[in-house]
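Run log, item B.
One chain of 108 residues. Sequence copied directly from the ordering sheet:
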Amino acid sequence: MNFNSSINPYLFSNKDDYKNLSEDNLQNTISKIINSRENLKNEILKIEEELLLDEIQIKILKEELKNIELEWDKFEKEYQIEKIQLERIMKIIYYNLKIEEFLEAYTK
């Protein structure tokens, strides 16, 4: 039975090494393939964990942005309330001054 046709030649440093495999070399090559696959699996797991962490960070950042927007809305409402109150006070002061001017002008 010929196993050479199922082995990837890119695993070897020399292009034709895979054609001259002995049984020991074949076992060694199989071990390299298994180790390589395990390493790839581990790398994939690491990347998946990083992606999961990135997704969690994105959720956290979105929540923080939402909180900032809520705080801004609250600040904006408070600002509008204070602005209206100050405008009312200014109108009262303005009309009081006009009344005083009127009284001074007609009481002389």
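Observations after the first pass:
- Helices lie at 23-107.
- The two ends are 128 Å apart (CA to CA).
Flagged for discussion on Thursday.
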